[in-house]
Amino acid sequence: MALALAQAEQASRIASPNPGVGCVLISPQGDIIGSGHTQQVGGPHAEIMALRDAAAQGHDVRGATAYVTLEPCAHHGRTGPCCDALVAAGIGRVVAALPDPNPLVGGQGFARLRAAGVEVEVGPGAAQAWAQNIGFFSRMLRKTPWVRMKAATSLDGQTALANGASQWITSEAARTDGHAWRARASAILTGIGTVLEDNPRLDVRLVDTPRQPHLVVVDSRLETPVDAALFIAGRTTYIYTTSQNNAKVSAIQAKGATVVHMPGRQAGSEQKVDLAAMLCDLAQREINELHVEAGHKLNGSLLREGLVDEILLYLAPKLLGQGLGMSNLGPYTSLEQGMALEFKSVERVGPDIRILAQPPGRDRFGALPVALET
Prior knowledge:
- The protein is of the alpha/beta class.
- Helix 3 (82-89) packs parallel to helix 4 (108-115).
- The strands form four sheets. A nine-stranded mixed beta sheet has the order 11-10-9-8-14-6-15-18-17. It has a five-stranded mixed beta sheet with strand order 2-1-3-4-5. Strands 7-16 form a two-stranded antiparallel sheet.
- The chain has helices spanning 2-10, 46-56, 82-89, 108-115, 126-132, 134-141, 172-184, 192-198, 246-253, 275-284, 296-304, and strands at residues 22-26, 32-37, 65-68, 93-96, 119-122, 146-153, 160-161, 187-191, 214-218, 237-241, 258-261, 263-267, 270-273, 289-292, 310-315, 323-324, 342-349, 352-358.
């Protein structure tokens, strides 16, 4: 299963909106005879790639064991059912890390394998397989993407100087690592403040990637300039707004973006985008992991509404004094009002430190879904 999980990791940047799955075939004699992982959407799934690999090497897979990090699919979608392909190939046993929560699968893959006489075991590697596809499980079970907020700060918590200067607080190594996290996301989210102040591209440049994540902009008043750098040919872009400016909507959509009207809470004399409704809408658009790179206002709103699942923080060994923080939470009047988090990992990246932190228990949605398999 460790080899299958390693295969799944190779799919992390290419599989979205599908889960990144790995598969390894072991002969009855205990030899590795094939392996593979999910390809880009519309391409073969992990099981098919492993069967093809075995065939290319001239191996007989009859009676072999397939170690796979997720229940083989049982429906006709963009590709055919993988469970049927395993049965047709003569696989004798399937060991799966997790059942598939997709209602189109939901135990049917295991049922069809067993009905065909294939032995099925579920559970080995479940925790790691869950973590690898946390966004897919979030979309299927919670009907919302997994929201990861990224920030780069000084040791005293500043994301920029008081005058807005922020390039670069962290090292090149940290920036490259940040692009790797962008690459695995289904979409990158930012706010109109960042667009107007920095005119960013918000694409993946510092690591190789076969696809660019979608881009999402929260822009209540529809102020995104039509000549903004974020309009990259071929990239799916969503602009969420409360504005009814039809002329601006037409101009932005002429750039290839989709404008989504998402009115929400009243803030003074204007409406703000309903962020929770936006996340539900993004899930319906098959967004698994949403990578947030925004300013302190949008960050603060997402945190206050409890919509952030994970914080990805790069901490530089420098002090900047008075400046701009990562969010406009507070001011609180007691320590108990602070947001409790738990560290999931703390690692060195070049001269900087990378911290992954989550609200306690956030990544389990109650429990691992092994119980879905009966």
